[in-house]
Design a protein that fits this description.
By secondary structure, the protein is of the alpha/beta class. It is built from 15 helices and 18 strands. The strands form 5 sheets. A 6-stranded parallel sheet has the order 1-6-5-4-7-8, with helices on both faces. Helix 15 links the parallel strand 14 and strand 15.
């Protein structure tokens, strides 16, 4: 897979604006025109987005350019993420009307758009989130103003241009999606407070989610997580190890859904560690090497990740710590205790600790504690259905994966639709078009 330099942001790009007011005004004008379009036309425009975003050449470009511009992630995995965002995000078909008929008349429960949505996108999934939100938000009848992460602004501008042009060619109004070319804290604040923005959606860390939640507007917050993976003594340990390594190394652990720590019943710890090695995990056990890893990957406080290493390759991390990587290593792991910062903090790196405990009940209790109430994602490997049910009820996460890799929970090689906006803090869960629509009750009186 080859890459070229990301094209520079230009005001000539379709839908890309230097000024927040101009971007919102264009999206507002587009919304008025879009409101006159039929559902059939809406489907046509969404299909144009899917086709434009899923062309192989563009998939490869988005993946390699994202790694180049953001300095994070794995290009091969990003190809898959973008493909699923384009092809498996629900469209207009998600807006199913309900009807109730009786002696007193007919009542229908319909979906209607909010208007112009302000959508803040992350550096971890820049193109995936734009594709996913474009499909979902436009399917619900809205238009969108995107505020991309500054470290992904050029690629985001390119993508908005591509998607707009594809929709216009299919007969859509101009500027159904717009983008702020040079995002800053000031432009983000201006977007959040703009009177013509009627809904806000933020995908990112706690700070940006809290900003939109305190705006006084309808807001969806897709925040961070610290997903635990529990392995009990009944599990298929070999499969659990394979799933954990696959999930935790996917896109270098950038997805908030990825396994961030493993909790295992001690009696199967040796089998799990052996199987993880077989699947590409390198176990670091030497105290001096562990000290080097912590010095490298934690900031000076010793309790937060060093952001310079977020989303980097496992072998690159090992070399930087003075540890020789094994051939084929894609995940770094170690056996440790719950107080370890690697366990407590969402590192967003292919460095996933393993914590042994005495029994499955202790494992579930610890998983609940380590998830920190984010209500995001959790994983459990067990052949005991009652234990799986118990953990699901206790941890109450938006996504709960049973006996599979974490990415199955967002529709990648798993059943169900795909999404990259997972709203734990505000409770919408895996967002789809109905998440971005109002419920309207229409009543026909038959008396």
């Amino acid at each position: 897979m080859t890459t070229t330099a990301v094209p520079p942001t230009s005001t000539q790009l379709c839908g890309v604006f230097a000024d927040v007011n101009a971007a919102v005004a264009a999206a507002r004008e587009a919304f008025l025109a879009f409101s006159d379009c039929s559902l059939a036309q809406r489907r046509t425009f969404i299909n144009a987005v899917r086709e434009a975003a899923s062309q192989q050449e563009r998939l490869e470009y988005m993946a390699t350019a994202a790694v180049e511009e953001t300095g994070m992630g794995n290009a091969h995995h990003k190809v898959l993420k973008n493909l699923y965002a384009a092809t498996r995000t629900p469209g207009v078909e998600d807006l199913v009307m309900e009807a109730r008929q009786g002696d007193d008349g007919l009542t229908t429960l319909e979906y209607s758009p909010y208007g112009v949505i302000g959508a803040i996108t992350p550096t971890t999934n820049p193109t995936e989130t734009i594709i996913c939100n474009t499909v979902g938000m436009l399917s619900a009848g809205n238009t969108v103003v995107f505020s991309p992460h500054p470290r992904a602004r050029r690629l985001s501008a390119w993508l908005v241009d591509v998607l707009n042009r594809a929709m216009i060619e299919a007969g859509a109004p101009e500027n159904l999606i717009t983008l702020i070319a040079e995002p800053t804290p000031a432009t983000t604040t201006a977007l959040i407070n703009h009177p013509d923005i009627t809904m806000l959606v933020a995908t990112g860390g706690p700070q940006i989610v809290n900003m939109v939640l305190s705006s006084g507007k309808k807001a969806i917050g897709a925040g961070s997580g610290n997903p635990p993976a529990v392995v009990d003594e009944t599990a298929d340990v070999a499969k659990a190890a394979s799933d954990i390594v696959q999930g935790a190394s996917f896109d270098n652990n950038l997805p908030c859904t990825a396994e961030k720590e493993v909790i295992v019943v001690a009696e199967v710890l040796p089998q799990l560690m052996t199987a993880m090695r077989v699947n590409g995990a390198q176990v670091v056990s030497d105290p001096e090497e562990l000290a080097k890893l912590r010095s490298l990957l934690l900031d000076p406080s010793g309790v937060r990740p060093n952001t310079a290493w977020v989303g980097q390759d496992a072998q690159k991390i090992l070399r930087a710590a003075g540890i020789k990587p094994n051939q084929g290593t894609r995940l770094v792991t170690m056996v440790t205790d719950p107080s370890d910062p690697f366990v407590q903090v969402e590192m967003l790196m292919p460095v996933v600790p393993v914590v042994p405990v005495t029994d499955y009940l202790t494992a579930i209790d610890l998983a609940v504690e380590l998830e920190h109430g984010n209500r995001h994602t959790a994983i459990m490997h067990s052949k005991d259905v009652s234990r799986l049910d118990l953990m699901a009820r206790r941890i109450q996460t938006t996504i709960f994966v049973k006996n599979g890799p974490s990415f199955a929970g967002i529709g990648i090689n798993g059943e169900g639709f795909a999404t990259f906006t997972i709203a734990g803090p505000t409770g919408e869960g895996l967002t789809s078009p109905r998440s971005f629509a109002r419920r309207r009750r229409c009543v026909l009186d038959a008396r």
